Amino acid sequence: MKTLIRNALVVTMNEQCDVIDRGAIVIDGNRMTFVGPAEWTPAGPFDETIEADRMIAMPGMVNAHCHSPANLVRGMMPSKPLEIWRAYYRASLRGMRDEDFYASAILGGMEMLKNGATTVLDHFAGNQECRFMGAGAAIQAMRDLGLRHVAALTITDKNYEDTIPLGDTESSLNDEIKRMSANEAKSTEAWLDECEAFIETFHAPEKLTTACPGPSAVQRCSDELLTKSAEIARRRKLPMHIHLAETKAQAVMGQQIYGTSLLKHLDSIGVLGANLSLAHSIWIENDDVELFAKRGATPVHNPASNLRIGSGLAKVKEFLKSAVNVGLGTDGAASNDGQNMFDAIRLAALIHNQAGTDFNQWITPAQALTMATCNGARAFGLDAGVLPPGKLADIVLLRRDTAAFTPLNDVIAQLVFCENGSGVDRVIVNGETVVEEGRLTKVDEKGVLKLAEQARRKLDSSIQQELAAAKTMEPSLTEMYFRVFGQ
Q1: Which helix (H) or strand (E) holds 266?
Q2: What is the pTM of this model?
Q3: Distance CA 100, CA 138 (A)
């Protein structure tokens, strides 16, 4: 199918951030074959012509880190430090099964698409009672929506108590600690076999799926699991995704285990490379920034989540100064409560402007939008995130006759500071329109909401029971938090 988008204001997000005032885009199949001034449009015929005189065209955004099972528990988790928050969140997943993971993923995916994200990295950790923890159901949901996705299977082979500086605990907590380990950890060999089988089963770029290894976090994995996961990714030419130094407790644990920073340890065992993206990357050492730049790895900034659970501010200004490829994510809806990338962009452009710092280093709108588009695509080896000919046709059209763009003074600044997703009119993924006039084309939206409501209602008793069990861990985790910060 050949499609012409005519007379749009085209925000290319190329290296020069060129904007074409009356631009045209030609899509042939799943790729763009022309992007330029409308008067230079090659001759048709076209199967469809989209008159975009009152539209802004931009690359589809890449949500570079989230957890799809979290959508069913948005708004439920306490605003407390990650180690406390995580005990509650992981407990809430214990009663979920494939149909629940499907409902949760399609709910979050719908929100992303309708707000202009065309690709998501789902760092999937669900329930070991389901095959692949339920990741297959989430993948099916995203395929049904037409949302491009990188499914990173979360794996860990260390017991829970060996991954945080918990200290002495009451013996009454031993059963809960064992349950936490049983729900997450298993042997190195078992995880590696499962990861290979997961990729064999689901990796299918033609179906919008990139399947890859997703070790949970450095301190939660043995060196063997980390190095062999990296070998799988490199042998298969896939990305790999991991959490890095989200909290001070994790950085402390890294020093205890390895005697160096978590990032330096990854580098020392040969895991750090251009195909590796690392969520959060907050509690790192100053020279780790240059190590990111040297190896070409991508830190993924999750500003809303980091604020919600008090993890800290990533060194985004330092990363950008050193030409590090910074991606941007929402994180899961249990620590953000939404999956809107426009929210993430705006926060990324605002929260690093601290008084007394060098304002020449503050994040510009173009830098924030670049994180959300081409940087995310680059992290996952996707030919997307920018609008030149030859790239994948992942395109968002926004209405410009809205308050956000009236008057239209600087389209990039207004996309970052003024737009909230309500102006998204059409979303094209892989050359196919999946949102038209603000509505999904492949899935019934009311049906998605009903499915999610039913799933959450069914899970209620399980969730309440598991949250009560998790609450028993809070005093010990609170003591750890204050001990780590020396209070």
Answers
A1: helix 262-268
A2: 0.97
A3: 9
